[in-house]
């Protein structure tokens, strides 16, 4: 009986070890593939037309592919903002759009039009605050997003007219093209100084930012 238990234990240990090795190998291959893509497509991370928050010459650049209807993007916004608050001279945030949710493209265009009224950040934050109302259950109620933008002081009728500008259409089209090239499949997706997170999570983002900040301080 003792021998049988030992055999079972050894067998289970081997299965667990084999599974762990498989997971590790998959993660390594995946990270290597992402790194190769970033090397080949690095110029796609930041475009001249990209929205930049924070100092333009900051040594640490966080690129976020973002969907205004994404609950996780909403949850991460305070975290990223806190990192920027703690390191005001060292971090800049580049906002790229990945409007995967239905109707998000309308809100993206409104955000870009808000820049023309110098209302980008207040509109962004008000739209995120109202997200549970206008993006509930993936059934967008865009009018509610527009109402939230108006509460932030945006002249919504003018912004909707400005949102038809070819430059804004082109920016969104460019972001969509870059999403495909960079193989961004979910939001938020972060890159820090051209490096992808080893795995998704708040701690992983903070750790990668800390690594890049440490390089600056050397």
UniProtKB/TrEMBL annotation:
- List the keywords (alphabetical): Disulfide bond, Oxidoreductase, Redox-active center, Signal
Top-rank taxon of the source lineage equals Bacteria
Q: Entry's InterPro entries? A: Thioredoxin-like_fold, Thioredoxin-like_sf, Thioredoxin_domain
Q: Which residues form the Thioredoxin domain?
A: 10-214
| Single GO molecular function | oxidoreductase activity
State the Gene3D superfamilies in the record.
Answer: Glutaredoxin
One Pfam family per UniProt? Thioredoxin_4
Q: Which PROSITE patterns match?
A: THIOREDOXIN_2
Q: Which SUPFAM superfamilies does the UniProt record give?
A: Thioredoxin-like
**Similarity remark:** Belongs to the thioredoxin family. DsbA subfamily.
Q: Know the name of this protein?
A: Disulfide bond formation protein DsbA
- Organism of origin is Rhodoferax aquaticus
